[in-house]
Design goal:
single chain; alpha+beta; FAS1 domain; 2 domains; 7-stranded mixed sheet; 7 helices; 7 strands; 20% strand; globular; disordered N terminus
Length: 184
């Protein structure tokens, strides 16, 4: 009887070991064959309020900004919950840069420089235009800071760029600006 129990125990233990090893191999195989996930920007949601990237994509005046976000692989970052405030230069603002600047920045070898410029346009938190204070300095996601000027007529300038419109989004605020902000 002891011998039968001993044999049964060894058999059961062996079966457990084999089944664990088999599952480990199956899970390893499944994990290695899985494709990487696309990130937050791949989530399709036509019901909720649009986020910063969705608003920019829908804007006919921000095609250069959207192309720059894609080239810098910064779309997922601005699709996340945030909250963020983005100073969004128009296509005309990008066109005002010296000839060849945008074309150079979107090259893969300049991705870090482009990302730094884009991050200089991003504040962490929601800042509405009516809450800006003349002379206020706010830190950017790039690590530098921008200076705000509130004129007597209520016009807001950020580092000299005029805020020409604002849009509330599901993950923050967009302030459309007429110039590209460049970090020092």
């Amino acid at each position: 009887m002891k011998s039968l129990f001993k044999n049964f125990t060894i058999l059961a233990f062996s079966a457990i070991l084999l089944s664990c090893g088999g599952n480990q191999q199956a899970s390893t195989t499944a994990a290695s064959s899985a494709e990487p996930s696309a990130g937050q920007s791949a989530v399709k949601d036509d019901v909720s309020n649009p986020n910063i990237v969705q608003v920019a994509v829908a804007s006919p005046d921000h095609t250069t900004l959207v192309a720059a976000l894609k080239a810098a692989e910064y779309v997922d970052a601005l699709t996340n919950v945030g909250p963020f405030t983005v100073f969004a230069p128009t296509d005309a603002a990008f066109s005002a840069l010296p000839a060849g600047t945008v074309e150079s920045l979107v090259k893969p070898e300049n991705q870090r420089k482009l990302r730094d410029i884009l991050e200089y346009h991003v504040l962490l938190g929601v800042y509405k235009a009516e809450s800006f204070v003349n002379g206020q300095k706010i830190g950017t996601a790039e690590g530098g800071s921008v200076t705000l000027e509130v004129q007597s007529d209520g016009t807001v300038l950020v580092n000299g760029a005029k805020v020409i419109g604002s849009v509330q989004t599901s993950n923050g605020m967009i302030h459309v600006v007429d110039k590209v902000l460049l970090p020092e």
